[in-house]
Amino acid sequence: MSDKSKSQRPPETPKRGEAAWRAARDAIASRNEQASRLARARRQEEYEQQTARDRAAELRERAALAKLRP
Q1: Please, are residues 24 and 16 in contact by the beta-carbon 8 Å criterion?
Q2: Which domain holds residue 59?
């Protein structure tokens, strides 16, 4: 007895010609866009960490200078 409640899609025919070219181009563009988003997020995170380190160093320097003042 076969279970017909699970509909199976027929196998998709491979694309040919311009449709195959467009599908490949779109796949490459999608991967490039995802890589760009990840790289942008990574750069932003590194920038924020560097800014926090710079701010902490500045605060330490100000505190050390404040101790030197009479």
Answers
A1: no
A2: 41-70
